[in-house]
Amino acid sequence: xxxxxxxxxxxxxxxxxxxxxxxxxxxxxxxxxxxxxxxxxxxxxxxxxxxxxxxxxxxxxxxxxxxxxxxxxxxxxxxxxxxxxxxxxxxxxxxxxxxxxxxxxxxxxxxxxxxxxxxxxxxxxxxxxxxxxxxxxxxxxxxxxxxxxxxxxxxxxxxxxxxxxxxxxxxxxxxxxxxxxxxxxxxxxxxxxxxxxxx
Length: 199
Description:
Elements: E1 3-9, E2 13-20, E3 27-30, H1 34-47, E4 50-57, H2 64-82, E5 91-98, E6 101-108, E7 114-118, E8 125-126, E9 129-130, H3 134-145, E10 148-155, H4 159-178
Parallel strand pairs: 3-4, 7-10
Antiparallel strand pairs: 1-2, 2-4, 5-6, 6-10, 8-9
Helix pairs in contact: 1-4, 2-3
């Protein structure tokens, strides 16, 4: 059972995360930002990950620290749970329609952090979430998970649908990348012989 627990406390946020990669999509999420909670719940359900995450941050100042640090903790959870990454598929991608919108996410659990993010929204807020902070969430995630992540919303009318499609897509790309292939269960998915996480 690939699982991990992380506790991260700073002067700005206090976050506790527990992840089981080989889960059933069960979740308990509380960040103080309701739309963000909803997206993380979607991520857990569509990824088949069990996620228990509680974040308390300085929301009286801004949402930035809470959103970014949640990405950091989630990335740390995946990195720790994946361990030496032997036997995993390593790469995954998904194309997700969400009504009139379409999202694409590709991920490579290579150990090298890199983010390409293009998901424009027309409004500053969707629900109670500052949408510009999603870039910071994914940036925190890739830097601490040790992965390449390319996330793009190709088109759409509803900002809610764009973001929801993106998180469902992210979940399913990660689900495949983290899963194992019985034929290759004892192999490291690299000709280098090393997947070094630079976090």
